[in-house]
């Protein structure tokens, strides 16, 4: 049941990649003569990739639990035996020996060969032979449950290789010349003069259009355009979120969210005081002084640590983060407390409210279906900005609308009422790092924060409200990677249903594990045993009832080599967190392994 419709995990891990039987990825003979071309660069890259995939598949079988004698044939024989899939036995962490070997292979200052060019072939052989075995198999393992990381869908990896091959810099949007009847507004005279210098409607890449297509599809996938039931078909052509861009991750998206929030609330106050000062133009201090602003606070409930970092980066400081969670359910936003804080607006205290849509320890949500409209009207009344940190939580909106997920849908309902939203591509969407998403309802605020002033040679604004904005003016970087392509590829390849199925498998596995932990004599389900499974998303938080075992539980689990988890603290005591985020999830297979490992550890049996 648990395979995604269009991609078979077994196929990608078991693919016969090479006819070589030596098992030595460092061997420099071409393992697959069919790929030989006449171009040395192409040859090198093709062979590098073949060797990489070959090394990955052999790494799978080395040092694995009990299948040291495994080889390619063995692998094939068991291709369809779910419980014996190689991915099932794959060691998640590198061995101590591999780590030691890798560390001792690093160049040492003072050695005669230090910084002596080794050449591409030898260098690549070093990467595969010494470094690869010392990395963790995060993206390759179906049971890497540390942090919230995700894996990489094969089609996303393929798209990312294309991005690397072309080293596409997505920087300035040069629109196509307006076609007949495109409705583009008349150019002003000044612009016309500029165009004569550069040539009319100059375009040099489709990348910005692809990026925009990916962002629009994401907005529709997540039902964020505020129009229900139209499935994105026949929807109006200008979705909300005219300020939309890809970032390096949710941290960068949170930086943009706080920067935009700060810009909007402070400038509005400065304007009300009759001044023309802005944060972007005059700086935070001058704009706050002009508006009589004493403080800008960030109201949230169990905000992610990156939020404090973002607050530091945008000049608000860690201390600006104020927790207004519901007592006993600290991940939930206490709207009464929020209102009390917003009222301080008349003392010159301005607020940005950050909704933790998916709290990172518990996976629970700050708001419910009725909260967001209330929060929106409070923010409007008191001049506050609403930012959603939905790094992984936002994707609950793409789950099927079936009974088992209705509770989660209620948790993420109304998030489209926010001023800005942060999400991660490299977590649940399973595209490679670095991939984050930032959406903003107010393009002018985003461009005010991010535009490059006095750089006329980069200007390309067409002045059309429905146009694609230059990436340059809506994000942190100027030169930047074509991060959109892997997302575009995943959306195209999986479609709404494929992505819904992938997310469902993550949630259903988390719930299987949660039910096991809840019913176990040895473990305690956190934050509360009384919670319903329906409120479980992709994270399971728990601890061992035996305090001694609890101290070492994370290490014991990871020492099993069968799965990887990360530790956290809950109410001052150690706890284990399982975050299910890989497309490779197989509910039945993985639940069995997790239960086996947790049971064996609890009863002191080897696993
Ligand atoms: C992971 C995460 C972040 C940070 O995202 P990065 O991708 O690591 O930059 C922010 N908020 C939440 C809720 C997260 O889970």
UniProtKB/TrEMBL annotation:
User: Acidic residues composition bias: which ranges?
Assistant: 187-199
Q: What residue spans carry the Basic residues bias annotation?
A: 75-84
Q: Name one GO biological process term.
A: carboxylic acid metabolic process
Q: Which residues carry this modification: N6-(pyridoxal phosphate)lysine?
A: 427
Sequence ranges of Basic and acidic residues compositional bias: 232-241
Give cofactor(s), names only.
Answer: pyridoxal 5'-phosphate
Residue segments, region Disordered: 1-40, 59-92, 175-205, 228-247
Q: Composition bias, kind Polar residues: at what positions?
A: 8-24
Keywords tagged on the record:
Lyase, Pyridoxal phosphate
| Gene Ontology MF terms in the entry | carboxy-lyase activity; pyridoxal phosphate binding
A Pfam cross-reference name: Pyridoxal_deC
GO cellular-component terms in the record? cytoplasm
* PANTHER family named among the record's database cross-references: DECARBOXYLASE, PUTATIVE (AFU_ORTHOLOGUE AFUA_2G04980)-RELATED, GROUP II PYRIDOXAL-5-PHOSPHATE DECARBOXYLASE
Q: Which family does it belong to?
A: Belongs to the group II decarboxylase family.
What is the protein's name according to its record? Uncharacterized protein
Q: Please report the organism this UniProt entry assigns to the protein.
A: Thermothelomyces thermophilus (strain ATCC 42464 / BCRC 31852 / DSM 1799)
């Amino acid at each position: 049941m648990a395979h995604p419709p269009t991609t078979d995990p077994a196929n990608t891990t078991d693919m016969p990649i090479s006819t070589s039987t030596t098992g030595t990825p460092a061997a420099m003979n071409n393992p697959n003569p069919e790929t030989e071309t006449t171009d040395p660069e192409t040859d090198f890259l093709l062979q590098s990739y073949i060797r990489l995939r070959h090394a990955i598949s052999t790494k799978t079988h080395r040092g694995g639990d009990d299948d040291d004698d495994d080889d390619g044939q063995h692998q094939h024989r068991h291709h369809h035996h779910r419980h014996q899939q190689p991915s099932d036995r794959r060691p998640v962490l590198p061995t101590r020996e591999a780590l030691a070997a890798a560390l001792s292979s690093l160049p040492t200052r003072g050695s005669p060969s230090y910084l002596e060019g080794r050449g591409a072939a030898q260098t690549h052989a070093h990467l595969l032979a010494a470094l690869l075995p010392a990395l963790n198999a995060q993206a390759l393992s179906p049971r890497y449950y540390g942090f919230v990381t995700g894996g990489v869908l094969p089609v996303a990896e393929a798209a990312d290789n294309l991005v690397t091959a072309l080293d596409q810099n997505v920087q300035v949007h040069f629109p196509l010349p307006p076609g007949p009847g495109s409705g583009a507004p008349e150019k002003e005279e000044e612009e016309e003069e500029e165009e004569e210098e550069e040539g009319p409607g100059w375009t040099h890449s489709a990348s910005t259009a692809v990026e925009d297509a990916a962002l629009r599809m994401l907005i529709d996938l997540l039902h964020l355009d505020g129009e229900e039931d139209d499935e994105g078909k026949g929807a109006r052509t200008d979705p909300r979120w005219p300020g939309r861009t890809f970032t390096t991750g949710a941290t960068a998206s949170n930086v943009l969210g706080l920067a935009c929030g700060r810009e909007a609330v402070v400038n509005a106050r400065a304007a009300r005081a009759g001044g023309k000062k802005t944060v972007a133009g005059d700086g935070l201090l001058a704009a706050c002084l002009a508006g009589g602003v004493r403080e800008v606070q960030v109201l949230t409930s169990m905000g992610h640590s990156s939020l404090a970092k973002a607050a530091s980066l945008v000049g608000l400081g860690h201390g600006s983060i104020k927790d207004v969670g519901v007592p006993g359910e600290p991940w939930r936003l206490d709207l009464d407390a929020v209102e009390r804080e917003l009222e301080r607006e008349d003392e010159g205290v301005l607020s940005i409210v950050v909704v933790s849509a998916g709290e990172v320890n518990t996976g629970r949500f700050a708001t419910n279906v009725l909260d967001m409209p209330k929060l929106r009207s409070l923010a409007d009344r008191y001049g506050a900005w609403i930012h959603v940190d939905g790094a992984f939580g936002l994707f609950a909106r793409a789950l099927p609308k079936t009974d088992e997920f209705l509770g989660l849908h209620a948790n993420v309902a109304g998030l489209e009422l926010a001023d800005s939203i942060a999400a991660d591509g490299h977590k649940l969407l399973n595209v490679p790092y670095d991939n984050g998403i930032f959406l903003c309802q107010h393009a002018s605020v985003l461009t005010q924060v991010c535009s490059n002033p006095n750089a006329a040679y980069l200007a390309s604004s067409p002045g059309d409200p429905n146009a694609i904005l230059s990436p340059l003016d809506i994000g942190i970087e100027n030169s930047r990677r074509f991060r959109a392509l892997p997302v575009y590829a995943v959306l195209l390849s999986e479609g709404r249903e494929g992505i819904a199925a992938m997310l469902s498998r993550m949630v259903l596995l988390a719930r299987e594990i949660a039910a096991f932990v809840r019913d176990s004599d040895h473990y305690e389900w956190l934050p509360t045993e009384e919670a319903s499974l329906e409120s479980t998303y992709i994270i399971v938080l728990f601890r061992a009832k035996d305090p001694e075992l609890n101290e070492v539980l994370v290490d014991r689990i990871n020492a099993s080599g069968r799965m990887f988890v990360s530790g956290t603290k809950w109410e001052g005591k150690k706890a284990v967190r399982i975050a299910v985020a890989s497309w490779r999830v197989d509910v039945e297979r993985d639940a069995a392994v997790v239960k086996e490992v947790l049971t064996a550890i609890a009863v002191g049996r080897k696993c």
